[in-house]
Design goal:
Blueprint: H1 3-18, H2 38-41, E1 45-49, E2 52-56, E3 80-88, E4 100-110, H3 116-121, E5 128-135, E6 148-156, H4 176-187, E7 191-194, E8 210-218, E9 222-224, E10 227-236, H5 243-256, H6 262-266, E11 283-289, H7 291-297, H8 312-334, H9 336-341, H10 353-356
Parallel strand pairs: 4-11
Antiparallel strand pairs: 1-2, 3-4, 3-5, 6-10, 6-11, 7-8, 8-10, 9-10
Helix pairs in contact: 4-5
Length: 377
């Protein structure tokens, strides 16, 4: 299910509720959603604006009957600009950015009917949930106002086992020393670097290839169904297509002993470096940050800050119920990480631009993901 289909599902859920007749209030038209006459149906339209989605139904007001000159003309119910906090599992379809999400944010205009979240969710599949809603300024755009994004990447820890060990040793447990090495390497990504070697979309001298990473680290491992996993978190101002998966892939290659640590710094130079791309299965959009918006409007007395603190419990519960189990079960069934690890020996991490041009293997996956913002797709 691509983005248009996912969005159409939301609109159908909303439409089912706005299509229900409501009580008539004197001086007002029927509740928004009373059945639209066929003659008016053609005037309804969906409108997409750059960077965000706005759903509007345009209806002509009913004609006034003869002899009703003294009656007050009906008024159109106003729509309000809001943002929705969404979560969805990427199994079986590609989400808005190709990955699962625990904290996606979209902006749109709606009629704020009672219990709107419950009513929308009642028409959505269980693996797509609306977790929160906030009013925002009229000109708010969830894409353009975003300051940063946090992604997490969940992977089995046997990915960090030395290359001489079995490629999929389920008894492997990440040692404190290896975790420390992983975090030392991940910390090298912090700051501003040219990530042209971490995407196929940019050249070495393109200014847009320079990206700012605020933090990147690996959390303590945990065991699911007898298999140990760990979660890598990365926060950056923006990401390019496949950038995060290649950042993870290169660190895995170094820790396993396939590549020297010096390849990290060399990858930011102008020469071509063969950077392996980790599978898309474990990639999840964790959070979208609106810090500048919060500073300007979050405490103006009219708007709420977009921090979603009260929804953190719902986010955590959704990940535990839908996202993490999907990653664990798919990893066991499809062995995407083990298959990808078996391709690492074919990479030439000391290759020049000429030597690297023919290397790199792609491992098919039903959850092939792609991170990023406006530079993706």
């Amino acid at each position: 299910m691509g983005f248009p289909r996912l969005w159409a599902t939301l609109l159908r859920a909303w439409g089912r509720w706005t299509a229900r007749p409501g009580p008539r209030v004197p001086g007002l038209p029927p509740m928004a959603g009373n059945k639209v006459p066929p003659a008016l149906a053609s005037h309804q339209q969906d409108r997409k604006v750059r960077g965000g989605w706005v759903w509007e139904d345009t209806q002509h007001p009913p004609k006034r009957a003869k002899g009703s000159e003294d009656e007050e003309p009906p008024r159109k119910l106003p729509k309000r600009k809001i943002v929705l906090l969404m979560a969805y599992s990427g199994k079986g379809y590609h989400g808005m950015q190709g990955v699962s999400a625990a904290g996606q944010v979209v902006s749109l205009k709606v009629w704020l009917i009672d219990n709107i979240l419950d009513k929308i969710n009642s028409h959505l599949p269980s693996h797509i949930r609306i977790l929160g809603l906030k009013r925002v300024t009229g000109g708010f755009n969830s894409k353009n106002k975003c300051d940063a994004r946090t992604y997490c990447y969940m992977l089995p820890t046997f990915a960090f086992a030395h290359k001489d060990r079995d490629v999929q040793d389920e008894s492997y447990r990440l040692s404190a020393e290896t975790l420390q090495q992983v975090n030392r390497l991940l910390a090298c990504y912090k700051g501003t670097h040219s990530f042209h070697n971490f995407t196929s979309q940019k050249g070495p001298r393109e200014p847009s290839a320079r990206r700012y990473i605020l933090e990147m680290y690996c959390e303590e491992p945990f065991v699911r169904e007898g298999l140990e996993f760990a979660v890598i978190k990365v926060k950056g101002q923006s990401f390019m297509m496949h950038q995060i998966r290649k950042m993870v892939g290169l660190v895995v290659a170094i820790v396993k002993g396939y590549a020297p640590e010096s390849v990290l710094e060399r990858s930011w130079g102008e020469e071509k470096v063969d950077v392996p791309k980790a599978p898309g299965l474990g990639l999840v959009l964790e959070r979208v940050h609106f810090e500048k918006y919060n500073q300007r409007f979050g405490s103006d007395g009219l708007h709420e800050p977009l921090d979603w603190t009260q929804e953190e419990g719902k986010v955590a519960a959704f990940k535990e119920q839908y996202i993490y189990p999907t990653i664990v079960s798919t990893e066991r069934d499809e062995r995407s990480m083990a298959q990808w690890l078996s391709t690492l020996p074919i990479h030439n991490f000391s290759a020049t631009a000429l030597g690297a041009s023919g290397t790199g293997a792609k491992v098919p996956s039903s959850l092939e993901g792609s991170e990023g913002d406006g530079d993706t797709h």
